[in-house]
Amino acid sequence: LQMLEQQVVGGEQAQNKDLKEKHQRRKKFADERRLQLVAALQESNEDSSEQALLSVYDSIQEELRAKSKMLEKVQEKLRAAETEIKDLQLEFGLEKMDYLSTIQRQERELMLCQQLLDQVQSLVRRDCNYSNLERIRSESVWDEESGCWRIPEPVIQKTHLP
Question: Residue-wise over 104-116: b if at least 16 C-beta within 10 A, else e?
Fold first, then answer.
């Protein structure tokens, strides 16, 4: 009676180990596939992609329409990204041109100041400390707090002969 019960409850193949192993492999594969689908759904932020993964289509035309809509959405996102890239490149180009013009303007002003100094230096008295520009540059100190140079005061050195 117990043998009959075991055969009825477990079926004819209740004792077949190969069948049990095959069933366990299928279950393991199904669990892995389910975990992969769950991971794919979690990675995806779009509702349409979730729908596409979970949808069962009645016909090829429905599948084609759904995938065409997804393609249009992706293409629209691509166009938006390309437009943003072009805007950023244009903005970068304008900033670059602005920086270059600022540098050129500052170079011209520096050349003007240098030429003025060269012209004025010959007019400064020899006994004044401002007659030597290199010495003035070496004695000048940049003040971080005020954001300007501290230049030594002009001094006239009178030499007295005995």
Answer: eeeeeeeeeeeee
Domain range enclosing 82 = 18-147
pLDDT over 90 percentage in the chain: 33
Is 54 part of any domain?
yes
The dihedral formed by the CA atoms of 40, 42, 45 and 51, expressed in degrees to the nearest 10: 60
Q: How many domains is the chain partitioned into structurally?
A: 1
C-beta neighbour count of 133 within 10 angstroms: 14
Q: What is the pTM of this model?
A: 0.46
Q: Which band of pLDDT confidence, cut at 50, 70 and 90, is reported for residue 79?
A: very high
CA distances for 151 relative to 36, 54, 123, angstroms: 73, 77, 19
CA atoms of 147 and 31, how far apart (whole Å): 69
Does 155 reside within a domain? no
**Residue 154 falls within a domain, yes or no?**
no
Q: Is residue 7 part of a domain?
A: no
Tokens matching residue 126? 């020899």
